[in-house]
Amino acid sequence: MRLAFMGSPEFSVPALRALHAAGHDIACVYAQPPRPAGRGQKETPCPVHRAALELGLPVRTPARVRKDAAEHAAFAALDLDVAVVAAYGLILPKPMLDAPRRGCLNIHASLLPRWRGAAPIQAAILAGDAESGITIMRMEEGLDTGPMLLREAVPIGSGMTTPELHDALSSVGARLILRALEEDPPAVPQPDAGVTYAPKIAKEDGRLDWTQPAAVLERRVRALNPWPGCFFTHGGEVIRVLSAAIAEGAGAPGTLLDGAPTVACGDGALRLTRLQRAGRGAMPAAEFLRGYAMPVGTMLA
Predict the structure, then answer these.
(1) Are 177 and 273 within one domain?
(2) What is the pLDDT of residue 48?
């Protein structure tokens, strides 16, 4: 089948590789433009761009496509059966959505209509959902509103972090898109009930609000790992919390209850198990505290 693949982050790479291995004719790969990265701020291609180059596939990296008639024409000229979209990062306008004969199929990392939007993996963990999943949907102009072709659930295990759920969903997505192309299942409209939205994650979302319940904060630590990462401030310094566990204890929210260290929350307490100072390596909490004093009774911000 002649197709274009449109994706950018690591999540999308397994699907691209699966489509290539299955023998589909990938006319072009679309990815976000290279951006400065690392200490030297060298222009660096995104993961999908790098994977496409490894596979010998042509790549286009337009900075925007919504109102670019030349890009619309170039896309239409590919004469596609279908376009596969997986976390591309740009909104496709109607001329591009309508160009492939079978439309544009999206690999979405949730069980639609739950968690439409930019950060469905993090949203599912933050909300304490028992499961997430992959939906293959036919795209339309609305935000993740298109009809569904295939869905498959993935359990969210106790203690599961965003990277773990990300990898599980990425693998399922690669498998399901092959099925969707082969079987061409009927499209089913999304139900009106149960719609939720997952907005983009901002850096400040990582700040731990100790007035919240410990269970909510424990999920936040798992959901926002690795970016933006959760943190608190102590003595004017930002301390990152890389892992944590719900613990027994009570006190004024933000109070350090013991040397574990355990912090009082709005309901219950949170034991911090792995910490990191700016410019330092991550380390277990016990090791961290040997070189950084936080006396019992300290109020964390």
Answers:
(1) no
(2) 98
Q: Who contacts 98 (Cβ-Cβ below 8 Å, separation ≥6)?
A: none
Q: Is the peptide bond before 189 cis (omega within 30 degrees of 0)?
A: no
Q: Would you give the end-to-end CA distance of the chain in angstroms? A: 56
Domain final residue, candidates 182, 197, 212: 197
pLDDT level of residue 160 (50, 70, 90 thresholds): very high
Answer yes or no: pTM beyond 0.85.
yes
Q: How far apart are CA 253 and CA 267, in angstroms?
A: 8
Q: Is the pLDDT of residue 40 over 80?
A: no
> Which residues neighbour 133 within 8 Å (Cβ) at sequence distance 6 or greater?
110, 111, 151, 152, 153, 154, 169, 172
Instruction: Give the E-state strand segments of 140-203 in sequence order.
Output: 148-155, 197-198
Separation CA 260–CA 286 (nearest Å): 7
The total of structural domains in the chain comes to: 2
* Mean pLDDT confidence for 183-212: 97
Amino acid, res. 267: D
For residue 252, the enclosing domain spans 203-290
DSSP label of 115: T
Is residue 301 in a domain? Answer: no
Nearest Cα residue to 119 out of 230, 207, 224: 224
- The answer to whether 241 and 208 are in contact (CB under 8 A) is yes
Among residues 153, 174, 197, the one where a domain terminates is 197
| pLDDT score at 36 | 87
